[in-house]
Amino acid sequence: NTGALWGGRFSGGPADALAALSKSTHFDWRLAHHDIAGSRAHARVLHTAGLLDDDELARMLAGLDRLDADVASGAYVAAESDEDVHGSLERGLIERVGPELGGKLRAGRSRNDQIATLGRMYLREAAASIASGVLATIDALVDQAQAHPDAAMPGRTHLQHAQPVLLAHHLLAHAWALLRDVQRLADWDARAAVSPYGSGALAGSSLGLDPNAVAAELGFASAVHNSIDGTASRDVYAEFAWVTAMIGVDLSRISEEVILWATKEFGFVTLDDAFSTGSSIMPQKKNPDVAELARGKAGRLIGDLTGLLATLKGLPLAYNRDLQEDKEPVFDAVDTLELLLPAVSGMIATLTFHTERMAELAPQGFALATDVAEWLVRAGVPFREAHELSGEAVKLAESRGVELWDLSDADYAGISDRFTPDVRSVLSTEGSLTSRSSQGGTAPAAVAAQLTALREQLGAV
Ligand code: ARG
């Protein structure tokens, strides 16, 4: 069993079927640089503890640097016989510094604390990159909001016309959700910034190695306080997968709207040619594939999370080999978002909004009925009665196939003497929008204040 990290107590090598099942180099190789960084830090604490002399440390670090460069250039790759990234890199180190020195590095560490640490290192970097992709998507939404400060659209509940809103208000609603995702990644990092290195297989080390020195060198804020927790827990991975799934869901909700808005029936947006696709048979087609793939990939991201949680649920402490299955879901989540975010932000940034069409539809479908009821409330009518009276106006308009503003003063007076001709002051989209001026409302002034608040929070992440 030459080259493997274990074998002394075995008489024969592993069955081919076991070796094939066991192998993880095809996905854990992306942690190679992190593994080598961990090895450098580990060599230093072995030196501090008196287990490597000055010369050995210097040769070890030089060997690790050469190995790192060879991994980067592709001159060193995993061999067919390597089980995982850790074993392969030990082989690579031994090839460079000899078995005598190379064989000393494994003292006081286990693949169990190594892998738990490397995964956190990788995910912390990935989280920073994903956060900047989400921020670019937020920027695209904010730019579109700023480019259309006065455009109105039908605000919907149950997908039915509800009340007119500003397009900017609607777009910024998506921006706030994505901002919380960025904040979640930052909050998550506080829990991810704890290093399991030094936990050993599960019980810590007897060799006087300082986990906090390793943690500091690897960019962590501290080391774990419990070696069992350090090697056996994967909640930090699961939380990461939850946040990435949530980002997927948020992108999917935007995308679903873009898909609807781009239909003939809505006619709210035209997609840029660079962010739409054609049909192999229908020459006229212009399809919103970016948005559809975003919606589809949200399902995949949810699958990554649920698969990981299912892997974890039955595991006794401490390390179990099941935990090798922790990596592909989170790696897939990272890869998926790295592909998706630039496409979605590009799609949003290049949307053309048909603001006349949106404005025309904004007050339709009796979307000003609430304004009529609130006008009555301001005139002293209890809301319960105002709701009824406004509803009667809707019923009358609907029976005639007209909108609320088409009813005459006499029609309103016929419904109730509480109505005066002044009710017309709220029977316009502009009147409705301007009146909703409380914090968080859709009035242009409130939306301008909202944008300032959003920018402030964006500046803090
Ligand atoms: N490749 C394993 C993983 O990804 C780490 C190795 C631990 N193996 C072991 N037999 N203890 O989790």
UniProtKB/TrEMBL annotation:
Keyword Cytoplasm: yes
Location of the Fumarate lyase N-terminal domain: 14-303
Gene Ontology MF terms: lyase activity
InterPro entries linked: Arg_succ_lyase_C, Argininosuccinate_lyase, Fumarase/histidase_N, Fumarate_lyase_CS, Fumarate_lyase_fam, Fumarate_lyase_N, L-Aspartase-like
Primary location recorded for the protein, binned into one broad class: cytoplasm
Entry-linked Pfam families: ASL_C2, Lyase_1
Reactions the enzyme catalyzes: 2-(N(omega)-L-arginino)succinate = fumarate + L-arginine
Gene3D superfamilies attached to this UniProt entry: Fumarase/aspartase (C-terminal domain), Fumarase/aspartase (Central domain), Fumarase/aspartase (N-terminal domain)
Protein keywords: Amino-acid biosynthesis, Arginine biosynthesis, Cytoplasm, Lyase
Domain Argininosuccinate lyase C-terminal: residue ranges: 366-433
EC supergroup of this enzyme: lyase
Cellular compartments annotated: Cytoplasm
EC annotation from Swiss-Prot or TrEMBL: 4.3.2.1
Pathway connected to this protein: Amino-acid biosynthesis; L-arginine biosynthesis; L-arginine from L-ornithine and carbamoyl phosphate: step 3/3
NCBIfam families (UniProt xref): argH
Similarity field: Belongs to the lyase 1 family. Argininosuccinate lyase subfamily.
Name assigned to this protein: Argininosuccinate lyase
Organism the protein comes from: Tersicoccus solisilvae
